[in-house]
């Protein structure tokens, strides 16, 4: 079982101007959506940022311009053709990126790898180190 901390991966994205521009896309999009939301409502729901719950959190200050939103996913993979799923992966997807590039291999961040031969029985025990790391990043902040 290997955990790959997400904090340093997020910091690395902020070191290159191209990735910073890509990360800031959600902020630009949110500004436009807030104007629509306050005027007569959002008409095209094509991303997470279009949702009223997200926009309400932004308006209330619970989500700020410096926050980064991620989704953590976990799934098994069959590495050999004659064996069942024996390895499980956890990946983080950055919601701040444009939906067109959010799921490209360059932008999906590895979070952990769980070796087999069987599927994990207690997922929470494998997720705990990742969530503990994210909690520390939230409390202490990320140096950028």
Structure keywords:
5 helices; single chain; four-stranded antiparallel beta sheet; 4 strands; alpha+beta; 144 residues
Largest sheet: 4 strands, antiparallel
- Tally of helical segments: 5
Instruction: Identify the strand order in the major beta sheet.
Output: 1-4-3-2
**Would you count the extended β strands for me?**
4
Topology:
Elements: E1 2-3, H1 6-13, H2 17-23, H3 25-39, H4 52-60, E2 70-77, E3 87-94, E4 108-115, H5 123-140
Antiparallel strand pairs: 1-4, 2-3, 3-4
Describe this structure in words.
The protein has one domain. Strands 1-4-3-2 form a 4-stranded antiparallel sheet, covered by helices on one side. By secondary structure, the protein is an alpha+beta fold. The protein is elongated and about 55 Å long. The protein has helices at 6-13, 17-23, 25-39, 52-60, 123-140, and strands at residues 2-3, 70-77, 87-94, 108-115.
What's this model, at a glance?
This protein has 144 residues and is an alpha+beta fold. It contains five helices and four strands; from the N terminus they run E-H-H-H-H-E-E-E-H.
